[in-house]
């Protein structure tokens, strides 16, 4: 039996089913007659269920994605279903999203749960496609429809409002990167690279995250051998005016600073502490202890940029003014132990009265929201120690886009539930959002007697999420980072102190 075949059913001819040749005096055509024959064989519940679907009374899964986004993504990707299959393009996209939501489960298990949400193919009501059919349809689908759907979904939702939505009058975003473990196939090792001493090849992902909701606004995928700097350069166009962007010291270069600042977004980036690591000279010390500095590309930086761009005649980048905030963070845990770290921030926020140095120093801690987003994505949604199931490079990227789409859908549900009570999304348990979403999708089945679906399944899920016990927020804690601390076994309560410090840079000529 082929992957797209279904179990044989005795099918009468058109003439053996009364009334199918013409409908209300109108010739319905061969394709319509074939469909009517299928649903007539499936019984009255299927007829009514299909009629309800045609009336746009979709179930929960269809309502998690904005209307028309999936169809537009398929069109933008140039995907065309050449013939009727058990899993056409739209159904395959939904199946792949189901694999991400039910990470760790096998194809057959996920398909059984997703079958009521896979419409548009040759499957009869109640029929479940085979794992082989899904494997082949994933290959036919490719990466682009999932990528296009992610782009549309990521750009669709406006910035969050409510508690914690703004800092200093700006929406806060952050850049960072992570790696995802892949199956140990030779094709994936060749395409993505194998870290020294590792068991699995890895794909590198760099994202732009909204720190309020931890929603992923943009992403770039590469191999383990692709640098985070190369990937983040693909995301500059997604920065927006009215936002302030946070990034760690891995991302700064003079060229990148100028390009990203030109987007209209404000930057608050950490830079290295060395006296010669930042091409800056002090212009003025401001009353809050921060500094206005002049950035000037050094000869070494220009030479490196010329080599990277294969442009030996590149001119020196134009000088620009920025603001430097240097401070010490002292962490004292409940056992009385302390440690101090020096942090240096460079920012385009030049007004020290509107944006005081100590407020900027505190704001930079929000960059850790990106790390929490990765914890949610990798540990809570994907599952700890779980490798991606795809065995081909394009399907790896397809699967990553699916995870990012589902992750964002869950973030949206948490934000909507938080908005019902006017609370910070931090108070919504992401693990519970995952569990409730899985449960509601499993119970979102058409009635076996009449084919009816609930009219407001998304609202019901959002209300259920809003009713869960709240996370406890506002606790100062520090996680164990060294092997000695990990052996202690517990996260420690901690108190953080920020002290604005003197910079060790030279003054401008």
- Main beta sheet: 11 strands, mixed
User: Helical region count?
Assistant: 18
Strand residues, percent: 15-25%
**SS-based structural class?**
alpha+beta
Ordered list of secondary-structure elements with their pairings:
Elements: E1 22-23, E2 26-27, H1 29-42, H2 44-54, H3 60-64, H4 69-76, H5 89-101, H6 107-114, H7 131-141, H8 144-156, E3 171-181, H9 186-192, E4 202-210, E5 215-223, H10 228-232, E6 243-247, H11 254-261, E7 266-271, E8 280-285, E9 291-295, H12 299-308, E10 320-333, E11 338-347, H13 357-363, H14 368-382, H15 393-421, H16 430-443, H17 457-466, E12 477-478, H18 483-488, E13 492-500
Parallel strand pairs: 3-6, 6-7
Antiparallel strand pairs: 1-2, 3-4, 4-5, 7-11, 8-9, 9-10, 10-11, 10-13, 12-13
Helix pairs in contact: 1-2, 4-8, 5-6, 5-7, 5-15, 8-15, 15-16, 15-17, 16-17
Short description:
By secondary structure, the chain is an alpha+beta fold.
Fold and architecture overview:
- The protein has 509 residues and is an alpha+beta fold.
- The chain has a domain at 161-168 and 179-381.
- The protein has helices at 29-42, 44-54, 60-64, 69-76, 89-101, 107-114, 131-141, 144-156, 186-192, 228-232, 254-261, 299-308, 357-363, 368-382, 393-421, 430-443, 457-466, 483-488, and strands at 22-23, 26-27, 171-181, 202-210, 215-223, 243-247, 266-271, 280-285, 291-295, 320-333, 338-347, 477-478, 492-500.
- The strands form 2 sheets. Strands 3, 4, 5, 6, 7, 8, 9, 10, 11, 12 and 13 form an 11-stranded mixed sheet that branches.
- Helix 1 (29-42) crosses helix 2, helix 5 (89-101) crosses helix 7 and helix 16 (430-443) packs antiparallel against helix 17 (457-466).
- The chain is globular.
- The N and C termini lie far apart (80 Å).
- 35% of the residues are buried.
- The model is unreliable at 1-29 and 42-57 (pLDDT under 50).
């Amino acid at each position: 039996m082929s992957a797209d075949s279904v179990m044989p059913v005795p099918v009468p001819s058109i003439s053996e089913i009364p009334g199918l040749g013409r409908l209300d005096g109108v010739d319905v055509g061969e394709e319509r007659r074939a469909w009517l024959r299928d649903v007539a064989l499936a019984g009255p519940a299927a007829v009514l269920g299909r009629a309800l679907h045609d009336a746009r009374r979709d179930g929960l899964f269809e309502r998690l994605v904005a209307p028309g986004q999936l169809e537009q993504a398929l069109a933008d990707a140039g995907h065309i279903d050449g013939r009727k299959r058990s899993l056409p393009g739209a159904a395959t996209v939904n199946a792949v999203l189901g694999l991400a939501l039910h990470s760790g489960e096998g194809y057959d298990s996920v398909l059984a749960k997703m079958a009521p949400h896979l419409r548009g193919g040759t499957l009869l009501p109640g029929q479940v496609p085979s794992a082989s059919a899904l494997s082949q349809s994933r290959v036919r689908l490719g990466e682009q429809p999932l990528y296009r759907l992610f782009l549309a979904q990521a750009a669709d939702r406006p910035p969050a409002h409510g508690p914690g939505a703004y800092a200093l009058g700006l929406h806060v975003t952050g850049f960072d990167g992570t790696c995802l473990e892949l199956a140990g196939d030779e094709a994936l090792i060749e395409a993505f690279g194998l870290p020294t001493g590792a068991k699995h090849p890895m794909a590198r992902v760099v994202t732009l995250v909204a720190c309020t909701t931890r929603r992923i606004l943009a992403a770039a995928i590469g191999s383990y051998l692709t640098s985070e700097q190369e990937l983040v350069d693909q995301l500059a166009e997604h920065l927006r005016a009215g936002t302030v962007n946070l990034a760690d010291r891995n991302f700064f270069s003079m060229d990148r600073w100028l390009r990203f600042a030109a987007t209209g977004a404000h930057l608050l980036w950490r830079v290295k502490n060395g006296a010669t690591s930042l091409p800056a000279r002090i212009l003025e010390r401001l009353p809050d202890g921060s500094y206005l500095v002049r950035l000037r590309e050094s000869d070494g930086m220009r030479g490196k940029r010329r080599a990277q761009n294969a442009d030996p005649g590149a001119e020196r980048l134009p000088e620009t003014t920025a603001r430097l905030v240097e401070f010490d963070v002292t962490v004292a845990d409940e056992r009385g132990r302390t440690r101090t770290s020096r942090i240096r921030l460079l920012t385009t926020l030049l007004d020290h009265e509107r944006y005081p140095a100590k407020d900027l120093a505190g704001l930079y801690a929000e960059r850790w929201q990106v790390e929490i987003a990765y914890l949610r994505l990798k540990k809570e949604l994907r599952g700890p120690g779980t490798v991606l199931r795809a065995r081909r490079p394009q399907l790896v990227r397809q699967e990553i886009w699916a995870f990012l789409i589902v992750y964002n859908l869950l973030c949206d549900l948490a934000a909507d539930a938080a908005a019902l009570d006017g609370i910070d999304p931090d108070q919504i348990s992401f693990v519970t959002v995952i569990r409730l979403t899985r449960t509601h999708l499993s119970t979102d089945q058409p009635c076996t007697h009449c084919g009816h679906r609930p009219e407001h399944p998304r609202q019901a899920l959002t209300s259920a999420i809003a009713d869960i016990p709240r996370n406890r927020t506002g606790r100062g804690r520090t996680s164990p980072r060294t092997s000695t601390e990990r052996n202690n076994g517990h996260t420690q309560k901690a108190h953080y102190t920020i002290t604005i410090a003197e910079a060790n840079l030279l003054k401008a000529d």
